[in-house]
Amino acid sequence: MRKSAHLLSFLTVRAPFRLALDTFRMISPPMNPTTLIALKEFPTRLEEYYFAIPSDYINWAPPSWEGIPSEPFSPIGQIAHVRDIEIDGYHVRIQRMLNESNPILESIDGEALAIERSYATSNAAEILKTFRQARAQTVDMISALSSKQFDRQGVFPGYGQLTLRSLLHYLCSHDQQHLAGLQWLLGKIDASKASDVA
């Protein structure tokens, strides 16, 4: 009897917790809100990080790219690459995953685009404006999707099998890599100035 009473008491205490957990599962968003917020706010962060670079260093490159956490691009190359990957890469990938059955997604040759689109002579203000518009389109594309749509699958070379939700986490990761790349460049620029003085 005492064991039964103890079990009943335990279940009574646990019931509100289980109800809250079940309610959370029913109302939890189909995509992690932290990731969605980071994607939405990234254009502002990118502008802040880019404009921290001294204006006479926008095409600067270090003697070695060893250790850079992003692709090896100059400061203006960093933002131009982010713009092109958004439009030519992720817009296309998202649409294909929504409209095709298990598509094989294409990678983008960033170094070839840098040459083809003359990153070194590009206008930073235009790049950032275009990227901000492109990211707003990305957010619009995904903001009303259902869990079932986020669960749609594809194959991304280098990543393997993934869901649309996975793809968006990788996009957010790519964003952060380029913020880190700009900070890395700032560190190298400062170190080069110190070496010149010495």
Note the topology.
Layout: H1 2-27, H2 33-51, H3 75-99, H4 110-116, H5 124-143, H6 147-150, E1 153-156, E2 160-163, H7 164-197
Antiparallel strand pairs: 1-2
- What string, H for helix and E for strand, traces the elements in order? HHHHHHEEH
Q: What is the number of E strands?
A: 2
The fraction of residues assigned to DSSP E strands is under 5%
For the CA atoms, what is the radius of gyration?
23 Å
Number of helices: 7
Largest sheet: 2 strands, antiparallel
Rounded mean pLDDT is: 89
Helix coverage percent: 55-70%
Shape descriptor reads: elongated
State the end-to-end CA separation.
Answer: 84 Å
- Classify the secondary structure makeup into a structural class: mainly alpha
> Which residue ranges are poorly predicted, with pLDDT under 50 across at least 5 consecutive positions?
23-27
* Spatial strand sequence of the major β-sheet: 1-2
Question: Would you write up a description of this structure?
Answer:
The structure is a single chain. The chain has seven helices and two strands; from the N terminus they run ααααααββα. It has helices at residues 2-27, 33-51, 75-99, 110-116, 124-143, 147-150, 164-197; strands at residues 153-156, 160-163. A hairpin with a 3-residue loop joins strand 1 (153-156) and strand 2 (160-163). Helix 2 (33-51) packs antiparallel against helix 5, helix 3 packs parallel to helix 5 and helix 3 (75-99) packs antiparallel against helix 7. The longest helix is centred in the last third of the chain and has 34 residues, at 164-197. It is elongated, with a radius of gyration of 23 Å. The termini are far apart. The relative contact order is 0.16.
